[in-house]
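Question (not urgent): is this output format expected?
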Amino acid sequence: MRAAPVPVITTAAPAPPGTATYSQADALRTDPRSANPADWRVDWADGPWPVTVLDGGVRRPLDGTAGDPDLAPLARLLFHTFAVSRLRVDPRGGLAAAPGRAATPGHGPRVVLRRPVPSGGSMYPTEAYVVCTRVLGGGAHHYDPYRHELTDLGRPDAPARLAAALGAADLPAVTLVLTNRFWKNFYKYGDFAFRLGAVDVGVALGRVLRLAAELWGPPLLWTAFADDRVDAALGVDGRDEGAYAVVGLAAPEAGTGTPRSPGAAPPVPLERSRRIKRSARFDALHAAARAPAAPPPAAPAPVLPGPVTPLPPPDAVRPSPADMLRRSCAGALFDGRPAPAPALAIVLHHAAAVLDGRAPAGAAGLALYVAVHRVTGVPAGWYRYRPAPRDLVGVGAGTAADTGRVLQEGLFAASLNIELAAFTVHVSAPVDERAAAAGVRGYRDQQLAVGMAVEAVTLLAETAGLSGHPVLGFDVHRVDRAYGLTGGPDGIQAQVSVGSARPGLNWEVSVLPR
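Got this back:
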């Protein structure tokens, strides 16, 4: 156990801000296996702790707050998004893998702490900070997902500083700031962590917005802000951790800027790793993403000449708390049973609604495609989903019975049997982050929206009685060709295979906060 800071090791000479290029960002989608230098190695014995550890500080447990009108909804939102809610046990010690490296038995941990939202490699790099104007006496707090409690950061001026950073006259009673703790992903994935971390924050953001709308009403969302000022309000350094999204959970309250009494002594972060490695490419992408950028214009929907397949009207389902906590596909394999067409309609309709109504303003042009493998009443093939008529339009290779085989062969690691899934949803987006001066900041917002779509598909699959398994490491060129996207402005960004799953060899148990 070591108090931060710890030695930082760079893998190349520092790059000046603004040198990140389109090719660097594009490689994170098209060839993540070569995103790192040829001599890249993962030091499995020197990874970070699965949760952020703070030493000291005043702590407030969130269990037992059911009767508190201010804390009860906050406790539910945090628990159903960030809390350690399950333990997965693998007697073999896991199959630890990294981009471009084969999985090696015995390197991974025997016990993995899992949370309600999916995360690449179960790394969970998203940190949640709670900024209050009157609840908890005001100030800023860090959420501990292991103990389900808040730690006072000793920053009574945080609400006023955050409001000024957002250009808001006042803040809601409770505001969440979602940050990306870079080392959590970089330790295993290297430069690919820049994209993966943004998607992971987007997954958590999708869940936060979903629960905020249910518990408080329409939330406020900021993704266009001065990163350094938001980071400073929380005491985040902006180099090893940075703010990506801010969510107001209720209507603004007057008096945000009211001076407050001095807070408790701030806690000290502790780090398990002896070395925190960095790279010039990651630092350049991160520096470029911190610069404000104009949002890209909304692109008109393309004219699709292919055959149209109508879908049943989607049911107005509402995911339950049990759906949010259950992750039945984690570590399991699909069993080949077909899915009913209404289940496909539910997943696509509600995922498209998230992109249409909640995505960051800087993310435009996202769309849903689906490869149907075995859905009752829907021919196997490659389709684009149209939200308004709620139907499928055949694209690319059209109707074909080998969709599962194509996607299976496109996996970089054969850890999932996609050929036995019922269908696979793909999220597409513009691939040139230079368009409309959106830059790398626009790319970051785009990946946030991709993560929101992943959260919606996986959760609605669970609600429909199926299981969803998201993947980012696959041959996008193969999938782009199948959908007829090669050479166009858009490309596939993420995929989620959905179907019935049989129990895996590993076992999981639900846990409650200590």
